[in-house]
Amino acid sequence: MASAALQSTELTTAFPSPEDPVARPTAPDELASARPTVDRLRAAYPLIDAAVVEATVTAAYDWFREARVRAYVPILAERRARKALDAVRTDVEAGI
Hints:
The chain is about 65% helix and about 0% strand. It contains four helices and no strands. The longest helix is centred in the last third of the chain and has 22 residues.
């Protein structure tokens, strides 16, 4: 069985703290990809207010802000936003 000190070291190296700047890299190209996402979703959901679409996309990107692998954030954020907008569209169409 490993000593307590070794186990502690293994945990800290395997899971960096949230304050670790490496854990949350910034990707300016993600911000650039948000605008076309908003435009695509505004076209796909014309019954939903543009401000709601933009807020939904922003919230979807925020959901992934601490993701360590950044390459797929734009597509994952768009899928998350579409799912949320589908629920809103259902409510709008139902008159709720």
